[in-house]
């Protein structure tokens, strides 16, 4: 049982050590990345909407 707690303590020390190496983006970098993601999602959404409309019309022509 003692070895179990030693492994947990070692794991926590390793996690703390790794967290010290983490670099977080600055506020402008975060805003820029967020803007890119939002714009990309909007473009893909519009594209998928157009493809869906095209396929619905094509299918309706085939069904008639």
Describe this structure in words.
- The chain has 64 residues and is mainly α.
- It has one domain.
- Helices cover 86% and strands 0% of the residues.
- It contains two helices and no strands.
- It has helices at 2-19, 27-63.
Core attributes:
single chain, 86% helix
SSE layout and pairing:
Elements: H1 2-19, H2 27-63
Provide the domain count.
Answer: 1
Catalogue the unreliable spans: none
Shape: elongated
Secondary-structure element order, N to C: HH
Number of continuous helical runs: 2
The average pLDDT is 95
Relative strand content: under 5%
Q: Which structural class do the helices and strands define?
A: mainly alpha
Rg over CA atoms, rounded to whole Å, is: 25 Å
* Oligomer class: single chain
Helix content: over 70%
What can be said about this structure in brief?
The protein has 64 residues and is mostly helical. 86% of the residues lie in helices and 0% in strands.
